Amino acid sequence: MTLFERLKNDNQSIWSAYIQHEFVQQLGSGVLPERCFHHYLGQDYLFLIHFARAYALAAYKSETLADIRQATAGLSAIIDLEMGLHVQFCASWGLTEADMEALPEADETIAYTRFVLEKGNAGDLLDLHVALAPCIIGYAEIGNILAASNNANAYASWIEMYASDEYQDVAAAAILQLDRLFEYRAGEGRYAVLSKTFAQATQLEVSFWQMALNPA
């Protein structure tokens, strides 16, 4: 069992609440109101800026070239793949990158992104990657689940991106990185703390979905 599978299994209740959230269900079936998706994209754009910073922090905290390469791949996936899709979606609504960057951050956006950055700053590379895992790996799982339903709708390109081989490769690399870091930087004595971090990050994902489902 990988470290990710172990963390997920030990926090199954909150993990299920995350990947089966009503926002995800409505997005997959195509009934999600456009204003909810619009609000989500704007906040997620701000969110991804901070997650790009987190991967830059991961590169800084790395001690090997392999770790730096893995962090760089994650950073590239955010700024070249995910943010690119956000820009395309929002452009169709007349919303520019400058408009998105000027949006006020929701409380949920602040809470989640600062949590991850704090874990990375206060801890080591393993702490940071565990805090990142629910987002990076969870979105790949959600993408696969929604793609399997074959629901062609207005949000199909979002689903296709996270189900794509390119993004699945990023998630698979993140799973391998967790195992490698746990082997070389940790032991069973650290697992309880890592599991708590994973659960907290997953709960923040649930809160982020809820924020998107109920825009102010």
Radius of gyration: 17 Å
Structural class comes to mainly alpha
Overall body shape: globular
Mean pLDDT over the full residue set: 92
Q: Could you name the ranges where pLDDT drops below 50 across 5 or more consecutive residues?
A: none
Order of helices and strands: HHHHHHHHHHH
- Per DSSP E runs of 2 or more residues, the count of β-strands stands at 0
Number of helices: 11
Proportion of strand residues: under 5%
Largest beta-sheet details: none
What is the CATH class? Mainly Alpha
Counted up, domains total 1
Oligomeric state of shown chains: single chain
The CATH homologous superfamily is called Heme oxygenase-like
Report how far the terminal alpha carbons are from each other. 41 Å
State the helical fraction. over 70%
* Proper CATH architecture: Up-down Bundle
Task: Tell me what the structure shows.
The chain has 216 residues and is an all-alpha fold. The chain has a single domain, classed as Heme oxygenase-like (Heme Oxygenase, Chain A). The chain is built from eleven helices and no strands.
Please describe the topology of this protein.
Blueprint: H1 3-10, H2 12-19, H3 22-29, H4 34-61, H5 65-91, H6 97-101, H7 107-122, H8 125-148, H9 156-163, H10 165-185, H11 188-213
Jot down its keywords.
globular, mainly alpha
Concise account of the structure shown:
With 216 residues, the protein is mainly α. 83% of the residues lie in helices and 0% in strands. The mean pLDDT is 92.
